[in-house]
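Write out the 3D structure for:
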Amino acid sequence: MFGTTAVNLVGSFILAFVTYGLAVYIDLPSWLILALGTGFVGAFTTFSTMVLNLYKHVGESPVYAIGIFLLELLVGLGAAFGGYLCAEAWGRRRQTW
């Protein structure tokens, strides 16, 4: 369960970094950025496994399932924001070279 959460959080970070950092600071074709985002990161993350785990826990402990869902949602948004901030910092540093 926590392995799935960890993979999804890392995926949120990478997706934001790739889609923002590569799109803004490196002149790559949009199809390549889309392929990296949906192809690589989509294959890396495990949304279906997360939903299956939540479904299993709803019957046992709905409060636990809701807590895990909110944790993944809020921390995932934070990880995506962190990816955006890292891409922004990387881009600024790259421009000063």
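The mean pLDDT is 86.
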